[in-house]
# Entry
Amino acid sequence: MKKDIQLIALDMDGTLLGNDHRVSETNKEAIKKAREKGVEVIISTGRHYQTSSNIAKELDIHYLITVNGSEIWTMSGELIARQTLDARVIEKLVALKEEHQTWAWLSSTDQIWRGEVPEDILAHEWLKFGFDTKDPETKGKIMETIESWEEIELSNSSPTNIEVNAVGVNKAAAIEIVCERLGINMSQVMAMGDSLNDIKMIEQAGLGIAMGNAQEEVKKVADSETTANDQDGVARAIEKWVL
# Structure
């Protein structure tokens, strides 16, 4: 049964993008047709504005949610909302990374550090901290330490990582802000994703779609499942539910 979908919210990696990190022609065509029907299409990603805006511009998208919902941009360059993570929390996370000797990346409002840490942590406005480890025991120990911290929100964008944002930051909360601007509600949203940072938007959207390659926890909460990101899963879902 068709739903009254007025907005499609798409995760990027593992969802909109194939494994070659590109948007397939099939996905592009489905997005174009949805927009021709008057449906708003937005990107909601864990990526920073620096590493996601080129794709949004390529698709002529109007709204871009970045860093798991920490920022909301219009593609005319307006910053609608931003929620930062306390620098002292970043200091504690850096200490934990050093204790467990994991790889990490840090996103501030204007820069991304991969595998290194800036000396002047307190001089930056922070959006996200990410741990990455292939050792489940190490990952478990880090989770055990930080999951009781009240000032943070935890998710992942792959099974080997842990992503840390400010409390209250998630893709669903950011999509609600976009919905308010458009005069629609979450029941009119179709959200698609593959990782834990997509769970809240998939749960709270009127129609939540898990990719065929999604983590099992994501598939459990989704209303429906589409094909994998490398099999034009975004286009398949748009064709089924919107066109």
